[in-house]
Design brief:
The protein is an alpha/beta fold. It has 16 helices and 15 strands. The chain has helices spanning about 10-15, 20-30, 35-60, 75-80, 125-140, 165-180, 200-210, 235-250, 270-280, 330-335, 340-345, 345-360, 365-375, 385-400, 430-435, 440-445, and strands at about 95-100, 105-110, 115-120, 140, 145-150, 155-160, 190, 215-220, 255-260, 280-290, 295-300, 310-315, 320, 400-405, 415. Helix 8 (about 235-250) links the parallel strand 8 (about 215-220) and strand 9.
Amino acid sequence: MSDHELTPEDLIDEPNDEDTRNQVDHQIFSEEDPVRKIQPDLERINASWLSDFEEDFGTAASSPENADKKFYPPLSPLLKEYQIDPFAQLKEPPVCLSIKSEDQFQSIATPGNISLIIGKPKSRKTFFANALGAAGLGNCLIMNRIQGSLPKEQNRILYFDTEQSPYDAQRSAGRTIRLAGISSLSYFPFYGLRTCSPMERIDYIERIINSTPKLGLVIIDGIRDCVSSINDEKEAIEISGKLMTWTQDRNLHIVCILHQNKNDYHARGHLGTELTNKAETVLVIESIDKGNGFSIVKAEYCKNRVPQSFAFEIDDTGLPVLFKDWEKSKDIRISLTREQKLDDLQDSLIWKFLVTAFKKKSPQRLEELKINLQSAFEEYDPTLGKDLMGKQIKKYVDRGLITHKGKESTRNSVYELGTKPAFIPMVSFEKSLLTSSQSGPDELF
């Protein structure tokens, strides 16, 4: 091996000389701040490679032998646009919205990302969206929980409502302004797109986003109405791709509002799945309607630290306000809820009840399975009704715990015991139930 000091050019000239590569590596990484020293050389190497590639591409594409072949355009512009530079000095993105947890604020929305707000119908999702808009609009603390912090150069907000009547949409806009403590719409354009088609909504939203200066936050209350079918996988991918493009091109944050499924707590359809996977934060709004009624806000997923849950109610003026001591409320123990409690049961206990329900007969029609399952669940909660059992049966079919055969609502529609789940350790309460059962654990499992 030569004794002269080597440069990265030597590496290009002698790419197969392992000793040469090792010596260059040693020289580079044995000195201080190696990243700064090698960056210019790596850029020169990359530029040399791109030049050689383009020359080879041009020769091949112009060759008569390849006249009938398809050639794609040179990669160099694409590489320059999409290649991630590990040496670039990138600033940490600012926080658009955060939630106060004790004495700290946990980020839920940053530029270049989307977030998702989900909940059952009438769970006060729009009231919460109004609070988010107000926090961003006034860069202030709303309900003593939601903090807006948009930078001065991007302090504009857009709000799109896709489903409410003009009267209700105007009330929604008014709530946002009143919460923020402002008296003008000049910095808060609010659009009602109820009468538009899904394609028109997407087109208008895109054009308005691209023509609004200093834009930092967009709220789309009713993203479902931007697709023809909520279960169309292609449409779901396309709209999520547009959302990500808008956020990156304009360096802004988009909040989307979407319903949960009727039979479980997941965001609706393929669209919900796609947005959940792409979202920086997924917040769930859950309505507790006993007494005066209030809603709980909790983080389902969060790329940053998960903020603490909190609750809000609607005051006499129609504005959302913080509901204090909600965890001590009797309503929360009653309403969080029989259905939710069933969803939270461990698989071992669910399987035990299913086995008991199918002991009498298999297969069973839907109505008799509801009765038998209701009877099986009596030792857990004797107040469960048949309607709730019907909801649970659908969920158990989706999970494979129950098998459904035939077309629903026909004489051929029957249900059988499905696949036994992989059990997790039982808690003492479950063990006591199994011990007290007439059938021992060996018979059940």
